[in-house]
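Hey team,

Filing this mostly as a record. A colleague (T.K.) asked me to run one chain through the structure pipeline before their review meeting, and I want the input and output archived in the tracker in case anyone asks later how it was produced. No errors, nothing strange. Just documentation.

Input sequence:
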Amino acid sequence: MRYFSIRGSLIFLCVALVTTAARADHGQSRSWTIASSNVTGPNDYCDKPIWELPAPLPPMAHFTLLGEFNTTAGSSIANPLTSVNCNDSTLLATTIDPEFQAFFSFPDPDSRITNLPLHQVPIIASLDGTRSSLEPSGTFPTVPLPPTRSEPNDAITLGDWFKAFGRLHIRCSEQDSARVFAQFGGLIPNGIYTLFGIWLTTPPSAPGPTFLPVAFGGFPNVMVASPRGRASFERELSYCPKGTQVDGSILMFVDLAYHSDGTTHGAFPFRPLGNVQIIDIDGQQFETSLPPGTTTHVQLGFPINVEPLQALH
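Output structure:
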């Protein structure tokens, strides 16, 4: 079973296989350094789960939010990532996970925004919010208009995706507040990223425990990678991420999400329900939803209070 049992929850979890080092410090202070792992979706590495999720969640739940670009003329369905095509040369494209779609009741997107190479995803390019695919910088003379994408704007392969790495440093004080600092390398050059903490908690409107994505360290939780793919992130927390909180909530993961449309979505890791206007490369305008996998993709994850699968079996 690949999905959870609490319907309607907004979930965006990213799970990863990491090595966590913990050490005792002076007094009651504690610190940890957590290495990241590459993923192709929440708890997913080329269509295989990498973490055993805690109860009450199905332990092997996983979702894929990346596909392989399908070169068949007119195809709107990306090839699923599997062990067969999980290699460095695979060209990444937008996709959706049908089980993710069905369970969380996300409307299906227009077929014209699936199976798009990630560097061709439409972005907001007009005052009314209409999105369109933009040519890379340098295609036109240096004048104010039309807007362009920044360089480099190369196609993104799975090899490029897996170049990303990071380390998350956590230092908790005696009062259970904390300072967190993360460093990243190998990211998509000039890419837009957000960090989200994924909590196991019971929201006021939920009948029981479920996943809840919350902007890590508070909003804004945005980073822009340098042209060399480097970034850093630092925040103060009013709680210690390790262990169970006083209300029973557990911070399970910290997710790094890449936004191929160059747009973040406020308090959510992906765009809430609703449609946007898009102009395709043929000049036709249409309306569509933007479910996870069409503009938001999970690239790295840091486990906080979970264990990797191979350590358990």
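Quick notes for T.K.: The CA atoms of residues 68 and 92 lie 5 Å apart. The longest helix spans residues 98-104.
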